[in-house]
């Protein structure tokens, strides 16, 4: 087992949060303008809720990755973690920046698959690390519903 260090934990949490911030910046940052023009599916939350939920989820991701990192057998699991972070980063620029709703639906589908794989691999190393990502997976499934619903309800715009 690797030495537990607060600096490593902070690096994982801040790194995950930074992915969210950079994704937002790469998207152009005008989420409300574009999102406000779209017909949204039932059960769509208010726009202000998204950054709050994502901040919590990124922190949980960072903590879970740290819990895996401090174990010696973490390399494969962390590769999947980094891969899902990269795909996670892409979703906002595709949906909000490029305004490609259907392509964003493909991205979020790939992301869900990667997160399931990550949860399984994390679970083999440290159960708590897997459990910390269950809210993330649930949110992604909900976000996929919103993404696909938005794509269906806005067929002529933003393909």
How would you describe this structure in keywords?
159 residues, mainly alpha, Ferritin, 7 helices
**H/E element string?**
HHHHHHH
Number of strands: 0
- The CATH architecture category equals Up-down Bundle
Number of domains: 1
CATH class: Mainly Alpha
Gross geometry? elongated
- Proportion of residues in β-strands: under 5%
Poorly predicted ranges (pLDDT <50, ≥5 residues)?
none
Q: List the total number of helices.
A: 7
Notes on the protein architecture:
This protein is mainly α. It has one domain (6-153): Ferritin. It contains 7 helices and no strands. Helix 1 runs antiparallel to helix 3, helix 1 runs parallel beside helix 4 and helix 5 runs antiparallel to helix 7 (134-153). The longest helix has 25 residues, at 101-125. The chain is elongated, with a radius of gyration of 16 Å. The model has no long low-confidence stretch (mean pLDDT 93).
How would the blueprint of this fold be written?
Blueprint: H1 6-26, H2 31-37, H3 49-69, H4 75-97, H5 101-125, H6 127-131, H7 134-153
Helix pairs in contact: 1-3, 1-4, 4-5, 5-7
Entry summary:
The chain is mostly helical.
């Amino acid at each position: 087992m690797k030495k537990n260090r607060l600096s490593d934990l902070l690096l994982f949490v801040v790194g995950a949060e930074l992915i969210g911030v950079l994704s937002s910046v790469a998207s152009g940052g005008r989420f409300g303008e574009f999102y406000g023009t779209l017909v949204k599916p039932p059960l769509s939350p208010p726009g202000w809720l998204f950054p709050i939920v994502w901040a919590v989820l990124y922190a949980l991701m960072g903590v879970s990755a740290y819990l895996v990192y401090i174990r010696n057998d973490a390399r494969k699991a962390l590769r999947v973690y980094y891969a899902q972070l990269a795909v996670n980063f892409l979703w906002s620029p595709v949906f909000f920046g490029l305004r490609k709703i259907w392509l964003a639906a493909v991205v979020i589908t790939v992301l869900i698959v990667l997160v399931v794989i990550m949860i399984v691999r994390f679970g083999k190393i440290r159960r708590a690390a897997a459990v910390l990502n269950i809210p993330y997976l649930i949110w992604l499934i909900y976000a996929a519903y919103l993404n696909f619903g938005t794509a269906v309800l806005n067929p002529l715009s933003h393909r």
